[in-house]
Write a structure and sequence with these properties.
By secondary structure, this protein is of the alpha+beta class. 22% of the residues lie in helices and 42% in strands.
């Protein structure tokens, strides 16, 4: 009987618990007044400078080769070596070349004798005028052939057409190369002012860039140094490999000689400027990339508002969207606020 009574009482207690109404939990509203500092947002005309990066190169990149084929007898420069204009860089073995010159010279001598003999026979009425003219033509052809062989022989040696350095050595002594086969890849330099930084820009950036605009360049190989530059060339077609427009900046390197392929960053100064809202960095909440929140004062309350950030500069934040020039924002104690907080504005 006691057992039945206990079960009945437990059942009754369970039913009453289920029927009990849930109490409504009201949101907590702090009665505490939080002192805050506020500031009016400012505006600033920010120059629309273009930031870009690229690789160092030179104004002229050239591939040196022989006009005729043959056996390489010598390459007198190494990769990275600087050379002067007129310096001998590479040669072919001249055995075959000298044989060709001798052969053409002998051919000219033979045709000269034939022409002289034909002229004398013509005077004796033995040769006809046509025969004399034919021997004269043969002599002219032999002389032109000799000139062609001599011309090719001159291009069996590679001389530097300007100051520069070797970026790649392709052929070595003893190798057989064909006419026009690359032997040396060089980069021309003139008084150390031919270094360029080739950067890729979007179509909008390319359109706002003009020849002659100034820029400041930093190179990873020279930390802490800044180099003056200007826009030297603009491509008129997009690079299909990377999908951007190539712009070349000519660098003023002074005594520095960077390596071709060195990575660099450029800040190109344009004539375009844009107005931005400027706020202090300590007014931001929940910043994530170019998205953040700020508290805006409205009717003695605060309102959490999302903003879009254009860029950071020291302790300043340039806001692209989300605020107006008439807004006042909270710049202190933001971490303790919500939209139900009571605030007191202090100076």
């Amino acid at each position: 009987m006691n057992k039945t009574l206990k079960i009945s009482m437990l059942s009754l207690f369970f039913i009453m618990s289920c029927k009990e109404e849930k109490k409504e939990v009201k949101p907590f509203v702090s009665a505490e007044v939080i002192p805050v500092k506020t500031a009016s947002v400012g505006s600033l005309a920010l120059a629309g400078n273009i930031s870009a990066s690229g690789l160092v190169t030179t104004e002229n990149e050239t591939t040196y080769s022989f006009k005729i084929g043959g056996v390489v007898s010598g390459v007198y420069v190494e990769e990275g070596q600087f050379f002067r204009r007129g310096q001998l860089l590479a040669t072919l073995d001249e055995t075959e070349i000298r044989a060709g010159l001798n052969q053409s010279d002998l051919n000219v001598q033979k045709n000269e004798r034939d022409y002289k003999r034909a002229t004398n026979l013509y005077k004796d009425s033995v040769y006809t005028l046509e025969q004399v003219q034919n021997t004269r033509t043969g002599l002219d052809i032999a002389r032109r052939q000799k000139d062609a062989v001599a011309f090719n022989a001159r291009y069996a040696k590679i001389y530097a057409s300007s100051d520069g350095f070797v970026s790649q050595k392709i052929a070595n002594k003893g190798e057989i190369v064909g006419p026009g086969s690359p032997v040396l890849m060089i980069n021309e330099t003139s008084h150390n002012n031919n270094y360029l930084l080739k950067v890729g820009l979007t179509d909008t950036e390319w359109a706002s860039t003009k020849i002659g605009q100034k820029a400041v360049v930093t190179l990873d190989g020279y930390p802490g140094k800044k180099f003056d530059a200007f826009v030297f060339r603009k491509s008129q077609a997009a690079d299909m490999a990377v999908g951007s427009f190539q712009v070349e900046l000519k660098l003023t390197m002074n005594d520095s000689k960077p390596a071709v392929g060195m990575f660099g960053k450029a800040e190109i100064q344009t004539d375009h400027s844009e107005d931005f809202i400027v706020i202090p960095y300590n007014s931001l909440l929940e910043a994530d990339g170019n998205r953040a929140f700020v508290f805006v004062v409205e009717n003695s309350k605060v309102k959490k508002r999302p903003i879009t950030i254009a860029k950071f500069e020291n302790s300043k934040v340039f806001v692209q969207d989300g605020l107006q020039k008439s807004d006042r924002i909270v710049i202190s104690n933001s971490a303790y606020l919500n939209e139900q907080s009571n605030i007191k504005i202090i100076k």
